[in-house]
Amino acid sequence: MKIVFATNNAHKLAEINDILGDGFEIVSLNDIGCHEDIPETGATLEENARQKTAFVAGKYHHDCFADDTGLEVEALNGEPGVHSARYAEGTDHDSEANMEKLLRKLGNNNNRKARFRTVISLILNGEEHQFEGRVDGTIAFERQGSEGFGYDPVFVPDGYDKSFAELGEEMKNRISHRARAVAKLAEFLKSR
User: Fold this and answer.
1) What is the DSSP string of 19-76?
2) Are 81 and 189 in contact, with CB atoms under 8 Å apart?
3) Known catalytic membership, residue 22
4) What is the dihedral of CA 8, 10, 12, 18, to 10 degrees?
5) Using one digit for the tens of pLDDT, what is the confidence trace for 102-150?
6) How far apart are alpha carbons 72 and 70 in whole angstroms?
7) What's 154's DSSP letter?
8) Tell me, what DSSP letter sits at residue 10?
9) Which of these, 20, 80, 118, 119, could form a disulfide with 84 (CB 3.0-4.6 Å)?
10) What distance lies between CA 170 and its chain's CA centroid?
């Protein structure tokens, strides 16, 4: 089965191929000649993931899936949420600025509860399906570790005493929100 993953991130493509294994040909946006900036204007992760798959399916007529991920902090009413990658004003995917803003807004607040969520939208044979992966944890008072990306140095998953950045990529990929969402996607696709 050939299916488009609405990304050009080589790391994400390799991860998906490893999980899905034989029987699936996962191709990128570049592979289908899509070089446009796909809109992500939704108010939720679900809406953003759906926008990406609807764009690809509508314009390129391929079965496809897309993901959107956000960090949701309880004490900040779910911020940064859908704006996680662009949380700090005037930036785009500036992890340091985003973490700095997050830690500043939380200050000494003892409610550090947070969760990472990944939503995958799949359009297969014209039907949409969504899968969610979630990992609960807390926000550390300061950065810890140097591995990973994004908010990994400040996010400590429940059941661990180290941040994602300290646990390392292999461990993070086994327990992360994205891994959980992809596992649900894989189970669904393999059942088809």
Assistant:
1) HH-TT-EEE-TGGGT--S------SSHHHHHHHHHHHHHHHH---EEEEEEEEEEGGG
2) no
3) no
4) 130
5) 999 999 999 999 999 999 999 999 999 999 999 999 999 999 998 878 8
6) 6
7) G
8) H
9) 80
10) 16
Return d(Cα 119, Cα 81) in angstroms, integer: 12
Which of 68, 92, 136, 152 is an active site residue? 68
Q: Which residues contact 181 (CB under 8 A, 6 or more apart)?
A: 67, 118, 119, 120, 131, 132, 133
- R_g of the chain, CA atoms, integer Å: 17
- Two tokens at 59? 């314009």
User: Can you spell out the DSSP letters for 76-125?
Assistant: GTT-EETTGGG-STT-SS-HHHHHHHHHHHHTT-S--EEEEEEEEEEEET
Does a cis peptide bond (omega within 30 degrees of 0) precede residue 80? Answer: yes
